[in-house]
Specification:
Chain A is mainly alpha-helical. Chain A has 13 helices and no strands. Chain A folds into 2 domains: 89 residues, no CATH class; 218 residues, MetI-like fold. In chain A, α1 runs antiparallel to α13, α5 crosses α8 and α8 crosses α10. In chain A, 44% of the residues are buried. Helix content of chain B is 32%, strand content 21%. In chain B, 46% of the residues are buried. Classes of the chains: A mainly alpha, B alpha+beta.
């Protein structure tokens, strides 16, 4: 196991190198140059002279390869340079946004576990019961309702009408409730269904039959055999969505004015903030790879049949 | 086997925890900062919102939000009611040849940290700005400065290369010529590298700033002029207009001063009927459509004249802007300096005349076809706008139906901002949405920019026969010292544009403001500032 993890970690290096080249190259083929976007964002009329001046102090007049290596050297030491848009150091800015998004994602995970696990279990225990139908309806609704609509409806009810929760921002614990629920809703819908189906499948499996034949209590059969095996697809999917959640949800962040990764990246793309976009891509790649690794380890822990060899 | 399993579980747990490590520290920092937030009664704080963070408040660069820079820093002159008025300079003398400006600085002005504002400090600021002339070359005044001298403690003398007449007006601009205290300068003295802390002479001081979330300003008790009535001004970052409306309804914010133009007419009217106080500014700029005079079907003057006459601006103001804007029939409002002139040509709404013009040029409507054609070519024009700008899109749709009535097809080309700017630069458009720069810059800054090839205006005008003459005229006008002659030159410039039907002025751009019922004293000034001096909260 240890060897396997080390091998996976070593694989990070070539992957990140390729990602860095892609990120660096792709931002530069976007229509509209960084210098013009830089000037326009500052209400400076772009003229030939002002564009040349901007390119000079942004360092865009140097050969591409030089630019890449200067950036790579900094990035290796976690110094991603200065944002074109805000003129602030990128690492703290992106980490601040990442932290806010992580906070939101963590809160969404709580909703996810609190709601989707019971929904899945109860639906599976009595398939095609009224509760199962309700949970199916809920899943359809949750998966198809756009998050800006859900978000604004929640705000309308809990902030404007009832005045219970803050309508925007990240001020206190209560601020987390609505945005995280909005973010979680789509995931809850699919997880409860995945869990239900996986449970139903496992209930029919032979090891459950043998467990019953051995005279084990129904509770033990469920927790030790059925539920455990059913968690594998859920955990895999769950870890994949952690990546998605950390990438930031532009819509949820916009609706609740949440200063997270989604808003940061959208505004950075619009501002052609090359160093910020590059840093975002590299950091997200790093996170995705880490989370996938965690998912693999978790699955191995749950199911002894899965073994990773170095 | 068991041991291995346990080990892998622990590794996974630790990695997950590392991933979420940030969350815990997040909460503690938050409670820490809220403890620092002003604890005064709500009455003492005015809460507003803006779609973006205020950014770095450096007076000499362009990274922050202009209105916030304007709250903290002041210029030699200020812009009020479309006029240049004294600010840090109480008065000034201009030499006969128009090249030497002697500013008499206001007595008793101090920066918010108590250090005096004097000629030496003013010169230090000028020097810092002029260190990077190339970054400010859009502002002709700075290109023209030959010398800045502190004559005595309260007299500052600026010598120009040429008698550049808009100098005093450009000194009202929010950036880059505003003044900061010594404490703001970094050790190197070069503010372009960054600032220590934002200290100006303005009526507000930055007290607390949480990136991307909010900023709190505190009243500058040392301010030389009329101080604002609120002790604190809190600016929440709210990106979405619907969120801002909800926040106003819940009382979390006191007002939406919408210089970012995010509020829709629907939202504005809904708030109005819900009992909130609503304000509409006068026209602060002109929304116009620039026509390409060089390429495509619009290169024909008669086609352009037809387009100008087939547009029902009253209907547009009613349907697109819900009556919140008024039609404009010229590029620059007559309220602006040099703009109250008689134009030779006018284009009234008259579809009959428009159709006749198109017939004259050979664009004929075949029976059975919706659009005019000539030699197998359809009269089809591209209308270019930024796709996220829903109002421009609606305007395009209305134009589509208006121009269809005279047999002209309009294709909507909505793109992300940078592609749109590319079109402005390259001139790849038939009709492009455009706006004048705003009352502080109009007409002189915008007219000066007509000479720039990288601008939509230059591209639009490129096809008119006397473009070279027009550019030359502008250059001469900017350094003309005789007031009457300058006025004549402006009139000629405006007439060239009007006769050639380069622009379709649509309506005056207005700013909106909505406040809670207990907030009064809202006034508007320019497109880029938020005047807070007179805003008060009424009791009860």
């Amino acid at each position: 196991m240890g060897k396997y993890i080390i091998k996976r970690l070593l694989q990070l290096i070539p992957i990140l190198l390729v990602v860095s080249i892609l990120a660096f190259g792709l931002v530069r083929v976007l229509p509209g140059g960084a210098a013009v976007a830089y000037l326009t964002a500052r209400n400076i009329a772009p003229t030939k002279e002002s564009i040349a001046a901007a390119e000079e102090y942004l360092g865009l007049n140097q050969p591409l390869l030089t630019q890449y290596f200067i950036w790579l050297k900094g990035a290796a030491a976690f110094d991603f340079g200065v944002s074109y848009a805000s003129n602030k150091a990128i690492a703290p800015e992106i980490l601040g946004a990442l932290r806010n998004t992580m906070g939101l994602a963590a809160a969404a995970m709580v909703w996810l576990v609190l709601i989707s696990v019971p929904l899945g279990i109860f639906s599976a225990k009595k398939p095609n019961s009224a509760f199962d139908h309700f949970s199916r309806g809920f899943a359809f609704l949750g998966a198809s309702a756009p998050s800006f609509l859900v978000g604004f409806l929640l705000v309308l009810l809990f902030s404007v009408k009832l005045n219970l929760l803050p309508s925007f921002g990240k001020r206190n614990f209560a601020s987390y409730i609505m945005p995280s629920l909005t973010l979680a809703l789509g995931y809850i819908a699919s997880y409860s269904r995945i869990l239900r189906n996986s449970l139903l499948e496992n209930m029919r499996s032979t090891n459950v039959l043998y467990a019953r034949a051995r005279g084990l209590k129904e509770k033990r059969v469920f927790s030790a055999h059925t539920l455990r095996n059913s968690m594998i697809p859920v955990v895999t999917n769950f870890c994949l969505s952690v990546g998605g959640m950390l990438a930031g949800s532009v819509i949820v962040e916009d609706v609740f004015s949440w200063p997270g990764m989604g808003r940061l990246i959208i505004s950075s793309i619009e501002a052609r903030d090359y160093p910020m976009i590059q840093a975002y891509v590299v950091i997200m790649a790093l996170l995705y790879i880490t989370i996938n690794l965690v998912a693999d380890i978790l699955c191995a822990a749950i199911n002894p049949k899965i073994r990773y060899e170095a | 086997m068991k041991k291995k399993k346990l080990l892998s579980l622990i590794i996974a747990a630790v990695m997950l925890m590392l991933t979420f490590a940030g969350c815990g520290s997040q909460t503690s920092e938050q409670s820490g900062s809220s403890a620092e937030a002003p604890q005064d009664a709500k009455d003492d704080t005015l809460v507003m919102c803006y779609a973006d963070d205020i950014g770095i408040l450096n007076p000499h660069t362009y990274d922050g939000e202009m209105f916030a820079q304007d709250w903290v820093y002041e210029g030699l002159t200020a812009f009020s009611d479309n006029k240049v008025v004294p600010s840090l300079a109480e008065s000034w003398d201009i030499s006969e040849d128009g090249k030497v400006y002697t500013f008499h600085l206001r007595e008793g002005v101090v920066y918010s940290d108590g250090t005096p504002f004097n000629a030496a400090s003013a010169k230090k600021n000028f020097d810092a700005v002029l260190l990077h002339r190339d970054r400010h070359n859009w502002m002709e005044s700075l290109n023209q400065i030959a010398d800045v001298k502190a004559i005595d403690d309260k007299t500052l003398q600026i010598t120009l290369e040429n008698a550049y007449y808009p100098f005093l007006q450009e000194m009202t601009f929010i950036r880059p010529v505003r003044f900061c205290a010594d404490a703001t300068f970094p050790a190197s003295g070069d503010t372009a590298e960054g600032i220590e802390k934002p200290i100006g002479t303005g009526m507000w001081m930055l007290k607390e700033h949480k990136d991307g979330e909010y900023a709190v300003f505190e009243r500058n008790e040392k301010y030389w002029g009329k101080k604002p009535s609120f002790k604190y001004l809190k600016l929440e970052v709210i990106a979405d207009a619907t969120t801002a409306v909800s926040a106003l309804k819940t009382g979390e914010i006191d007002m939406i001063f919408d210089i970012g133009h995010i509020l829709t007419a629907d939202a504005f009217n809904e708030l109005k009927s819900a009992g909130f106080l609503t304000y509409i500014s006068g026209p602060q700029a002109t929304l116009a459509l620039a026509l390409n005079t060089k390429n495509g079907h619009t290169s024909d003057l008669k086609v352009r004249q037809a387009l100008l006459q087939a547009i029902d601006k009253d209907a547009i103001c009613k349907s697109v802007y819900d009556g919140l804007r008024s039609p404009m029939d010229r590029l620059f409002s007559t309220d602006l300096p040099y703009c109250d002139t008689k134009l030779n040509t006018t284009y009234d709404y008259n579809t009959k005349k428009a159709e006749a013009l198109l017939e004259e040029t050979g664009w004929l409507l075949d029976s059975g076809s919706k659009f005019r054609s000539k030699n197998g070519d359809t009269l089809s024009l591209e209308y270019c706008y930024i796709s996220t700008d829903t109002v421009s899109k609606t305007l395009g749709e209305v134009l589509q139906s208006m121009y269809a009535d005279i047999g002209v097809e309009i294709k909507l080309v909505g793109e992300e901002p940078n592609s749109f700017y590319d079109r402005q630069k390259s001139g790849e458009f038939d009709i492009i949405v455009s706006e004048t720069w705003g009352n502080q810059y109009d007409p002189h800054s915008m007219v000066a920019s007509f000479r720039e090839p990288s601008h939509a205006d230059y591209r639009a005008q490129e096809g008119i026969s006397n473009k070279a003459y027009l550019d030359d005229l502008i250059t001469k006008m900017l350094v003309e010292t005789d007031e009457t002659k300058r006025q004549e030159m402006y009139t000629e410039i405006f007439n060239i544009l009007q006769d050639n039907a380069v622009y379709i002025p649509v309506c005056g751009s207005t700013s909106l403001c909505v406040t809670a019922k207990d907030i009064t004293g809202v006034v508007f000034n320019t497109v880029s500032d938020i005047p807070t001096q007179s805003i008060t909260r009424t009791a009860g």
